[in-house]
Amino acid sequence: MTTAVTTIDDVQHVAEQVAAGLDQLLHAEYWKLPGGDLLNAARSVEHLARLTYAVQVAVAGEIDLAHLAQTHGQPSTAALLRHALSIGPGDARSRVRAAQAVLPQDAISGGEIPPRLPALGAALRSGVLGAEQVSIVVKTMSRIPTDIAPDILEQAETTLVGHAHDMDPTDLSRVAGKLIDTLDPDGDFEPRDPADRAELALGSRDARTGLTGIKGRLDDLTVAAFIAATDAYARPRPETDGVKDQRSAGTRLAHALGTVLDGYLAIGDGPTQTGERPHVTMTIQYDALTEQLGQATLDATGVTVGPAQARRLLCDCDVIPAVLGSPSEPLDIGRATRIWPAGIRRAITLRDKACVFPGCDRPARWSDLHHIQFWVDGGPTSVANGAVLCGFHHTLIHQGDWTVRMAKDGHPEVIPPTWIDPDQCPRRNTRL
Fold first, then answer.
1. Does residue 300 share a domain with residue 361?
2. Count of Cβ atoms closer than 10 Å to residue 297 Cβ
3. How far is CA 299 from CA 91, 172, 182, 366, in A?
4. What is the pLDDT of residue 325?
5. I want to staple 352 with a disulfide (CB 3.0 to 4.6 A). Which of 111, 183, 265, 388 is the partner?
């Protein structure tokens, strides 16, 4: 008979037992097993991994139902899991979405709403599906309107789960696509306007190559505008001394996009953001600027560029001094206004780079400036009294449980409430 796990001591005790078993498996002498037994061992270990994922989904679901993100200063359960468990944002979102699909949910009027995908939940708990298969089923079922006939929804779920038992994620994705095509031959499940389905995302920068991947899809009108804006710049350069342009078509298009964006920023008539027109700020040490130019940092990306690229950028830009105390950029205007002037805003942004709340990844350009000592309580509008906070965490701070203070090294730090940390140890955003 299985003993119920109801306390944190129970959880830790079972986890220690499982860890002990895994340690034995980790040090097993697999090389002594015949080929067939070795494959069976791999299947057993995979089964354990899938059961572990089912537990991860269950825990994520309970964290979501308990609304812990709100009490821990995070905008969503996925953000809380990402920060607390040091997992990727995609993994965190997948766990939460899976939990919301396979676990009962709280009803607004009280009681519980049955799981939306019970067959998937049963397969997940039996350890026959991995994280990728679960994610494919959840995403596919989410594309089917909820007002479709219940028997069709049930059949679609059981079909996908049945195929997931025996298929890898690649083949299962193909089956999922065919299922949607069968249920929706006229495309009624998708928004009529393709622009509503357009998406564009910047990937992670490769520090070795200095390149960042871009992934997405655009509607016809945007593609036409993109081609019209870049086509003239994407053509091969004229031959020089009989040598043709050596750039590939993809490289020429990338260079063309950069040229178009440079031109847009140079015109300077774009919409304001945090009180300023679109711009790129480059940070250079003052002695390097006045003597021998060294490395510089681009604030939009946090990327360090070398002296040659810094010199090129300085050739065509307006140099805005970010030296503290510069007479042209006042960095303390006392109580004259609660609105942050551009000079003070730049200085705080250069220092903080992003929202200072622990675990937040919102960049400064999408955030607010916060008076550490509230302006209504006599706080001045100055660099020493300012901190970058995204809209969510700015609101959270003003609710009064969390506080921000300036540390001795001149950087903001966040103090949690006593019910999260009785010692109220200062925290910083380690992502900066």
1. no
2. 18
3. 28, 42, 49, 13
4. 45
5. 388
